[in-house]
Design goal:
The protein is of the alpha/beta class. It has one domain: P-loop containing nucleotide triphosphate hydrolases (Rossmann fold, 3-Layer(aba) Sandwich). Strand 7, helix 6 and strand 8 form a beta-alpha-beta unit. The two termini are 35 Å apart. The structure holds adenosine-5'-triphosphate (ATP) and magnesium ion.
Length: 254
């Protein structure tokens, strides 16, 4: 299968800081790919480039073979590029249900269809009981789930999730994993998922890309990446201080 997302040679500078340097990432339709790396590695900046919020200084972004590097965030959203944010971006003054309806507002057609889709998403994401709750008062885990539901309002082709599990309970993480898996496997969506909760990433993602200081440090099957001494060194500061896999998780789960 050809890659749905193919980003190559991506570079972004903030003054003297090279946030991204010659970064390449590829995700196929139906694949859930993990993106991990220490704080400041460039993960969110890469998402900003992929979603069109930030124009890269260098490099190209292809969606299903089409160059979208210069396309706006709105264009990309309407062509199936959807994301969630590290800092939640729900409309706090609207109910959870209305957040999901508003996300479909650009499409023409009857409101009833948008409400029906919202109801379906509430069910899929386990949020039915919260349909009428103002999004601004949701606890973090539920707010993150509502953000995921909103990102799915129109079936995405490429879904970018920035730390979706942070603040979630183990039960919520289980639901999150199930929803993400379903979207990828049944709808053929390409998912790129940033998460510090490494055991969650390793379980959900067959393939993992590791960023460090703006560069791709490692890439491959989850287990190989987890065992890579360079990855451990990036997280723990010194490869020599790591004695076993068990120590890898606490260092990066937070
Ligand atoms: N708007 C900005 N202006 C200046 N520097 C920035 C800006 N956004 C990010 N940076 C810098 O770019 C680098 C990458 O930041 P980024 O937020 O992409 O990292 P991250 O991997 O998402 O980190 P975290 O795990 O903490 O979310 C950091 O050095 C950061 O300080
Ligand atoms: Mg970030």
């Amino acid at each position: 299968m050809t890659a749905l997302l193919e980003a190559t040679g991506v570079g972004v500078r903030f003054g003297g800081v090279r946030a991204l340097d010659d970064v390449a990432v590829t995700v196929r339709g139906g694949e859930v790919c993990g993106l991990i790396g220490p704080n400041g590695a460039g993960k969110t900046t890469l998402f900003d480039v992929l979603s069109g919020i930030r124009r890269p200084d260098r490099g190209r972004v292809l969606l299903d073979g089409v160059d979208i590097t210069r396309r706006s965030p709105v264009w990309r959203a309407r062509h199936g590029v959807r994301r969630t944010f590290q800092r939640q971006q729900l409309f706090g003054q609207l109910t959870v249900e209305d957040n999901l309806v508003v996300a479909q507002e650009w499409r023409r057609g009857p409101v009833a269809a948008r409400r029906a889709r919202a109801a379906e998403l509430l069910r899929v994401c386990g949020l039915e009981r919260l349909a009428g709750t103002y999004a601004g008062v949701l606890p973090v885990g539920q707010a993150r789930m509502a953000e995921l539901a909103r990102a799915l309002a129109d079936p995405p082709r490429l879904l970018l999730l920035d730390e979706p599990a942070s603040g979630m309970s183990a039960e919520e993480r289980g639901r999150l994993a199930a929803v993400v898996r379903r979207v990828a496997e049944e709808e053929g969506c390409a998912v790129l998922l940033v998460e510090h909760h490494v055991s969650f990433v390793m379980e959900l993602c067959a393939r993992v890309v590791v960023l460090d200081l703006g560069r791709v440090l490692a890439e491959g099957p989850a287990e190989a990446v987890r065992a890579d001494p360079r990855v451990r060194a990036a997280y723990l500061g010194s490869a020599g201080s790591v004695s076993g896999p068990a120590e890898c998780d606490p260092a990066v789960d937070r």
